[in-house]
Amino acid sequence: MSTPTLRGISSMATRQVLAELLAAYEQQTGQRAVIEAVGGVDAAKRVQAGEAFDVVVLASDAIDKLIAAGAVVAGSRTDWVRSGVAVAVRAGAPLPDIGSEDAVRSAVLAARSISYSTGPSGVALAKLFERWGIAAEVAGRMVQAPPGVPVGSLVARGDVELGFQQLSELLHVEGIAIVGPLPPAIQITTIFSSGVAATSQQPAAAQALLDFLASPAAADAKRRQGMDPA
């Protein structure tokens, strides 16, 4: 008798790595899991509203809020992957120098338009520009990608000149060149966590999947998708 399929929801940032890991998990255990990837804000709203899921995969602060609200089981939070931000330009465009904090600041000031995401990396980037004292100067050139729309797609179309997003989300976009990760001094790292949804009818199976995502067996897939084990 086959076990019921686990159902989950995640933000877009972990879509590719989850697809790879869920396929491996099903092959090893026979347990099928389907995790829908949407914008992180929408995902949290749907979980909060009580939609039936088994697992929730979001940035750690979003998981903590859902635990506080009773929508994710307390004690089930599992940190499983870390994701850093990279910079992209349209394929064929000159690559700006991003080797230091000052170089990135200069590249931002020189860019006609800059795009960032609605996720935690976008919030952190806006704070960085404020700290640099350039927020007002670049405000008119900032283009926030709509939820669920990759920053890379705006860069590829030529809608924006400089794109900032998690490397994992830029890796699979055609028509862009990834300049590289932000330098260590200003790197923006998001820790993604998972948790068992309070609505889950099979919490033990859900927790077993989360344990697999955080296990050493999952490390290579994370690196292939531009992330690091948490």
Tally of separate domains:
2
SSE pattern, N- to C-terminal: EHEHEHEHEHHEHEHEEHHE
Mean pLDDT: 95
**Looking at CATH, which topology of the largest domain would you report?**
D-Maltodextrin-Binding Protein, domain 2
**Uncertain parts:** none
CATH class of the largest domain: Alpha Beta
State the major sheet.
10 strands, mixed
Q: State the share of residues found in helices, binned by percent.
A: 25-40%
The structure class reads alpha/beta
Number of helices, counting only DSSP H or I runs of 4 residues or more: 10
Number of beta-strand segments = 10
Described by the principal axes of the CA atoms, the overall outline is elongated
- Under CATH, the homologous superfamily of the largest domain reads Periplasmic binding protein-like II
Strand content: 25-35%
| Rg result | 18 Å
Distance between the termini: 35 Å
- CATH-scheme architecture of the largest domain: 3-Layer(aba) Sandwich
InterPro entries: ModA/WtpA
Pfam family, one: SBP_bac_11
Organism: Acidovorax soli
GO molecular function, one term: molybdate ion binding
